[in-house]
Description:
Low-confidence stretches: none
Number of strands: 10
Oligomer: single chain
Strand content: 15-25%
CATH class of the largest domain: Alpha Beta
Radius of gyration: 19 Å
Distance between the termini: 26 Å
Helix content: 40-55%
CATH architecture of the largest domain: Alpha-Beta Complex
Number of domains: 2
Mean pLDDT: 93
CATH superfamily of the largest domain: 2-enoyl-CoA Hydratase, Chain A, domain 1
Order of helices and strands: EEHEEHHHEEHEEHHEHEHHHH
Amino acid sequence: MNYEFILVTPEAKKHIALIQLNRPKELNALNLQLMLELKDALQNLDKNDEVRCIIITGNQQAFAAGADIKQMESRTPVDLIKIDQFETWDQIRKTSKPIIAAVCGFALGGGCELAMTCDMIVAGESAKFGQPEIKIGIMPGAGGTQRLTRAVGKALAMEMVLTGKFISAEEAQKAGLINRVVPDEVYLDEALKLASEVATMSPIALRLAKESVLKSFETGLQEGLYFERKNFYLTFSSEDQKEGMNAFVEKRRANFSGK
C-alpha cells in the first residue's frame, strides 16, 4: 500500500497495523487526498484477516493540526456536497476493527475529531486537544459538537467549541476524552502495548463488542440491551467461544483463530 500522505505498516506488530499521517510540514493538516488515502487504507485493513487492531498516529509535533484551510477557504456548500466532504469520516466509524489514536502534539479541529472517531486514545504529555473552528468563522463539522459533548459533557464542550479553547492531555484524561497520558517519548509504544492486549482477543468478539458499545450512543437503554443480547448470542456460534471457554476451564491461554 503506497500512498502520498500516509504511511501504512500492515504488520507493525503481530496482528496490529499502523497508519501514520505524513504531512509533517503542514502539521498533518487533513486535506482531501489524505482523507481519501486514509479511507482506502482502512477499508483494506478491515478486510485483512491478519489485522485485529489498527493504530492511527502522526508525529511528536502534531497528530493533526486541523483541516487544510487553504484547500477549503474558497469552497461553496455545493462543492462540499459534490466531493462528499465527510464520506471518509463515515468509513472510519464503520471500520469493524478497533482503532486506537496515538496522539502527540496538536490534535485540533479535524485532528481532534479524527482522534475522537477512533475507539480509544493514548496521548503524550504534550498533546493538546481543541475545536478552534469558531476562530475562523465556522464550526466543527466532522463530529466535534457531538462526540466531544458525549465524551466531556455539555459545559466543557460548549467552552471548547464556542471559544476555541485547547485542553491539555491531563485535562483531557480527567474529562474522560482519552484513555491515558504517558511521556511523549513512549506514546506510540504505549499505544502498541494497548493494541497488543486487544489483538490477543477473539476478532469476532472484538467486532461484536465494539459494535455494541458504539450502539449505546445511538439508542435508548432497552434497544441497546436488546442489541447487546443479540451480539452476545452470536458469539456462541464461533469456534473462538469454544476455545476461550475451554482454555478457561483448562487454565491455559486461549489461542483465538477468528473463526
